[in-house]
């Protein structure tokens, strides 16, 4: 005879209760959310806690669209319980995400801090990698200098063809195709003006690239060497529980990002002595040195970029370095002593060469193609640190497998949640908000798998 109580439809171990407990124990004002305290006058808006619960639930259940979230508030029993039957419209939902980026990012960091407090990152190494996520920008709306020039050449050629056609048709009064050609010619001339303006914009851009739909997105090579307009998402994942400890959005390649991400991990864990693993795309001597100066133990494999094999001469790896004598031993067992230092691409290098031994060497033809110059070895002044790192990798070949097993899975999971379109918002600022919500949802679901929903709620209340 009594109406059903909506609480009866939500079991005690339902994940929606975890969201409720987590958000209720947050200090939203200190985290940077707007309108936490309602004004004295006017009708109060929706509380940030209500909207945050809605978004966390949406990203946990692969519902990122504000319009779809609005529909769910009308028919989803779990959301009715979580929001206490409140039904914000899609514009209010979308504006909350757009206007509270700082607070959302801080909530993502707060959850990582919660995981740290319950000792989830003890004795863990951290795998770092980047992955390309599609932006809201079609490749056709992205322009580089070569692409703009191609379109200009095509339009100019078409204009010349139409002018020639119109001159031919002028002699035939019965031919009505000239009017059609004239309108088409006018369109081509207008298009040429647009392309000329675009060419100037592209050439003046620092990256020599312009994306018309999302100006911050960049054309990059993906895993299969295809080119897509996207963002490069950096992440650091702990090898023990596969939780995302830190993430970032960049518009460049992975090279040069190692120290930046490692420092973010240190700040998230409030710990200096950490170990990071990355692939060869992160190998940069200056970046590795900067990472080690932070107190981080880095393991990044070195790729062989030497062209010696193609030239048919001895590779640098065949020259053995003697640390005690500070000399290189060449394949002919001759010593190449240190002669001088040079600076190349910002690196201070030591040059090793033996003019006399190289001049009279019987296998000189296999060592260098130059008839006058001897074979030289160059060594970075901090190369000993790289050698120690390489030895650590050689002694632990399983590190590369561990990295793949750790960091690739979260990327694949989040992309599956996103669907084919990946990001829904434009500009780097908004895209970073979206990514923070995805990372928060991933970590939350991961912790529920590890601790269980009831166990996680108990840990949150402590």
UniProtKB/TrEMBL annotation:
InterPro entries: IS1182_transpos, Transposase_11, Transposase_InsH_N. Residues 221-444 form the Transposase IS4-like domain. Residues 5-98 form the Transposase InsH N-terminal domain. It holds the Pfam family DUF772. Transmembrane segments: none annotated. PANTHER family: TRANSPOSASE, TRANSPOSASE DDE DOMAIN-CONTAINING PROTEIN. This is IS1182-like element ISCc5 family transposase.
């Amino acid at each position: 005879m009594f109406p059903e109580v909506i609480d009866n439809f939500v079991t005690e171990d339902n994940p929606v209760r975890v969201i409720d407990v987590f958000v209720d124990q947050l200090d939203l004002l200190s985290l940077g959310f707007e309108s936490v305290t309602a004004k004295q006058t006017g009708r109060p808006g929706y509380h940030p806690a209500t909207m945050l619960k809605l978004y966390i639930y949406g990203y946990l259940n692969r519902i990122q669209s504000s319009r779809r979230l609005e529909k769910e508030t009308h028919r989803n029993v779990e959301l009715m319980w979580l929001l206490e039957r409140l039904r914000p419209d899609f514009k209010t939902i979308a504006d909350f995400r757009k206007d509270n980026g700082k607070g959302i990012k801080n909530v993502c960091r707060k959850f990582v801090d919660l995981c740290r407090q319950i000792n989830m990152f003890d004795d863990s190494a951290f795998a770092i990698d980047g992955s390309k996520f599609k932006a809201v920008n079609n490749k056709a709306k992205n322009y580089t200098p070569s692409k703009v020039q191609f379109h200009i050449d095509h339009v100019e050629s078409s204009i010349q063809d139409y002018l020639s056609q119109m001159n031919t048709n002028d002699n035939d009064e019965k031919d009505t195709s000239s009017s059609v050609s004239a309108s088409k010619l006018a369109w081509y001339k207008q298009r040429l003006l647009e392309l000329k303006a675009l060419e100037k914009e592209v050439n003046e851009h620092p990256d020599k690239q312009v994306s018309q739909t999302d100006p911050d997105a960049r054309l990059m090579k993906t895993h299969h060497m295809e080119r897509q307009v996207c963002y490069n998402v950096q992440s650091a994942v702990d090898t023990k529980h596969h939780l995302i400890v830190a993430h970032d959005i960049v518009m460049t390649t992975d090279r040069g990002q190692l120290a930046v991400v490692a420092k973010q991990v240190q700040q998230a864990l409030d710990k200096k002595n950490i170990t990071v693993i990355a692939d060869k795309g992160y190998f940069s001597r200056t970046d590795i040195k900067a990472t080690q100066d932070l107190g981080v133990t880095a393991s990044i494999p070195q790729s062989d970029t030497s062209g010696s094999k193609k030239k048919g001469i001895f590779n640098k790896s065949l020259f053995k370095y003697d640390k005690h004598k500070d000399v290189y031993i060449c394949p002919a067992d001759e010593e190449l002593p240190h002669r001088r230092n040079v600076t190349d691409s910002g690196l201070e290098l030591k040059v090793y060469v033996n003019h006399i031994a190289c001049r009279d060497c019987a296998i000189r033809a296999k060592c260098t193609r130059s008839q006058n110059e001897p074979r030289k070895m160059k060594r970075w002044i901090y190369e000993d640190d790289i050698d120690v790192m390489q030895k650590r990798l050689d002694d632990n070949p399983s590190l590369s497998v561990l990295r793949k097993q750790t960091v690739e899975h979260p990327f694949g999971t989040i992309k599956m949640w996103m669907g084919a379109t990946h990001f829904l918002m434009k500009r780097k600022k908004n895209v970073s908000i979206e990514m923070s919500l995805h990372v928060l949802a991933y970590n939350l679901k991961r912790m529920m798998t590890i601790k269980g929903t009831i166990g996680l709620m108990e840990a949150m209340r402590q």
